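Deviations from the work plan: none for this task. Representative record:
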Amino acid sequence: MSTVGTHISKEKDLNTQIESFVAQIKRRQIQGSYNVALATAQLLLRAVSATRWTHIDQLITQIKVLGKRLQSAQPRELACGNIIRRVLSLIREESEDTNDSESGDGAANSPLITSMFSLLSANDEYDSTRMSQGLGDGTSRSVKRDLKPYIIEGIQELIDELRSIDESIAGMGVEMIHENETILTPTPNSRTVLKFLLRAAQKRKFTVLVVEVFPNDVEKTHEFALKLAGAGIETTVITDAMVYSIMGRVGKVILGTNAVLANGGLLASAGATMICQCANVHRTPVVVCTGLYKLSPMYPFDIESLIEVGDTGKVLEFEDGSLVDKVNVVNPLYDYVPPESVDLCITNMGGYSPSFMYRLVLDHYRQEDVTL
Amino acid sequence: MPEASAKPAAVPLGTQTTKAQQQKGKDKNSAGAQETKAQRKAEKAARRAAKVSELGKSSHLPQEAIAQARAQSQAKQSRAASGTSNASSVGGGSSNSVVNATVSSAISSLTAQSTAIHGSDILDKRVGLFKHLEITRRSGTADAAKDIHPVILALTLQFASYTVIGSSARCRATLRAFQTVIKDYRTPVGTTLSRNLTNHLSRQIDFLITARPLSITMGNAIRWLKQEISVVSIDVSDDQARESLIEKIETYIRDKIEVADRVIVQSAVKHIGNGDVILAFSRSAVVEQVFLEANLRGIEFSVVVVDTRPFYEGKEMVRRLARAGLKCEYVLISGLSYVLNDITSVFLGAHAVLSNGQLYSRVGTALVAMSAKRKNIPVIVCCESIKFSNRVQLDSVTFNELGSPDELMNISIDSTPKPGPLKNWRDLPNLKLLNILYDLTPPEYIKKIVTEVGSLPPSSVPVIIREYNSA
């Protein structure tokens, strides 16, 4: 009884934690894809350790319900949903692994057919039908509690991966940049890009042109420029409008992004699209530095619904009475960059072309989890 | 020249005699000799700079020269590290820049605000690519010569503070100022009006240039005016000559700007239909008139104005359009891709159209034109024929105008300045701010240029210049 009692109080604790987390997300106290992703992962860790389940399906359903709630708190912050889907895919993977070892079936149970032999072998059809049965059928799974430590370990690994992302991406910087190069960065609010450039500056001498992202991130931009200059990199701050005029003298465009969509397109900060297109026109390579947690299984069917609009007071001050009622002011926070504008995506798992991103989506997420 | 007097004082005698010999041209022009002469010049400059920095800022050398010397010493150090292939070019460049420094110091005041080259720091704040465009700017008119007319003084300040801004507006203001100058002009004894007035005006123009470089329209107008002055007959009395010149200027303004604008408006309005959503960039006086005329004719359309900092000219445009009852939307250039989905056509203004069909206009125009072309949205440029120029240019770096970099440090969106995190940028090494005013749009992004002599594709600009002799 006492264990039940402590468990009920654990659940109550969990509920309060979830409530406070959702509130923080709604109020934008946790902001930025990295912070949201990390906080979501930590919350899920606590949720998994505090929840009881008899069938693994129950856990999956509970996480899904929780995930839907978290996602709807900040619907345009895709990182939250990404982490939830990663955890779900982790759970499914763990359960399928144990299922395999239980029934003694040696054939690969992953959705992807990995060996030609299994294509030719007679067991193939049997495997796929077993797969579709196995997910819905809870009674064959007698191992419930034993999975918990593995799942928790998996989530902990995910958290560690999140923390070390900037490190691994920065390590690739030196290969990308040569001596005396001029680099343009249209998203100076990205911590990843900052670390990338700072690490490369230890071995190379190059110039960086920093585009102010006015008006939403201009203060972060200026601080980014200060940090680069402090590290000995020759930094020049330019306005968004000047990009076309100097693009002919730029060697590479390096940007960060808020999200990468399944078709390889990006959801980056405002102005990124026109700058990447400008780079395409001048045949300047465009490189995106992003952690895999930003990769979302969503396709940009409706771009306008993905782009969040911000405070119009930053564009046109409200004191300007002659204009306030008569003019419609728009302040988009994000921009959709089509995949054909991007040449390379550098992630913590290596560099990929945007047309390959859908494979990474298949690797990390399950089809069943795309709609939470 | 203060430079020449300073050099011998700072340099030991042995090197001085060899330098004198070289200056007399007795040395052979071998590459080796050139190189060593350049190296010696640079070393001397470095020593001079070192001596000047010891003496502190109370040196009789102009501040620009100090910065130049320091830049040269830096250049010399980097050269020593990387090789001597550039030695002769550095040496040649240094003598030119020294001459420029003395000329500009003679005509501009050395207030801290006015120097684009900050003389007091070791850090070179000039952006490498644009060093050839740096000029010293004025902020006050206290040091003006006596023969500069007060109306020119006022105009100079208006230009320097961007109160009068825009290609046609500056041209009109300059011509009106010249009307006053001509009215008050009296030919000195011993010379004729047709010869002396040109010189008098040239001095006024030189003073105006210290605020901002001449616009193409101003250049064309001044060339026309000087031509008119030179054909004034000596039989005509001064009073009559002055009156006729003033009237000619009035006609020029009327024909080339005001009537031209009306013709352009009549022509361009045909491109606006019901239900159109038109994108306008920054502020163009002609484009504004096109929209107002279309609105008067009752065409139902809406306008999206894209604006940039630091001038926010688009705000003035949107204010006037909204006052006239037009449906307007306002966005900064970073939101361009977001609004471009609904746009049916783009109307742009011009500072100048060059002979190779390139459009020289406010910075950001090229981005707008490129983005529109990518989505197959037609781009129409409205411009008077006085904006046509014989110049050719391939990119926005070789020729441009630099604005004050401190405008980037200020992150407010209205007229009250609000310094941001970069307020001490001048003290930080490696940090530069770049503020250029114009950019070049390639002709392939432009569908049509509407002028008062007709509508034409960008490739036909040299034809107009030749036929109508407007440049």
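The two ends of chain A are 34 Å apart (CA to CA).
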